[in-house]
Amino acid sequence: MTHRATFKHMQDGTADDWAIIAADFGAYARGLPERVIAHLKLLDGDFGGFPVDRLTHSLQTATRAHRDGRDEEYVVCALLHDIGDTLGTYNHPDIAAAILKPFVSAENHWMVEKHGLFQGYYFFHHLGMDRHLREQFNGHPLYQHTAEFCAKYDAAAFDPDYDTLPLDYFVPMVRRVLARPRQSIYRKTED
Question: Over the stretch 141-151, which tens digit does the pLDDT of each residue have?
Fold first, then answer.
């Protein structure tokens, strides 16, 4: 039987309660890669009118980045960039960025967080929107990094005939990148 804390309000928690919670947190945190992979699979079969389903688009984006020699962290960002589509219909980049933030560089985090606005360059004008919204970041040090991600990998990843690598190929990468946070309020600082 699993031990559980006994408080009814956090202010009444004891060191013993929090030791129980901390022990469970570690085990739960180690399961994050598997939960992320399971959530990514929810994109399978969801076309949303696109030429390929959202999982294939994600896999194809990652495949293109991988074949172009990008490092593992970048490839995982490419794979997960649209994982927020299921729960963040109106802000999917924010969801993906929140998941990745503890594990990736500030540069790759910014790229994922802003990719939706940058990607709009390719289609916003067809929807009566301003395709140049990304220009508000012109001059930002990561403008080109994000524009390149969209141009080379994200916008190009809707080809039903592309030789896309399967999810299983990327699973070890996801596990490695999400194995240890670089920054988190829940991570003890190292002396």
Answer: 999 999 999 99
Q: Report pTM.
A: 0.93
Cβ within 8 Å of residue 112, ≥6 positions away:
77, 80, 81, 93, 96, 97, 100, 104
Q: Which long-range contacts (CB under 8 A, 24 or more apart) does 72-77 make?
A: 72/173, 72/176, 72/177, 73/103, 73/104, 73/105, 73/108, 73/177, 74/108, 75/170, 75/173, 76/100, 76/104, 76/170, 76/173, 76/174, 76/177, 76/178, 77/104, 77/108, 77/111, 77/112
Which residue ranges form the domains of the chain, and what is each CATH number?
Answer: 32-177 (1.10.3210.10)
Q: CA–CA distance from 44 to each of 26, 96, 100, 168 (Å)?
A: 30, 17, 21, 14
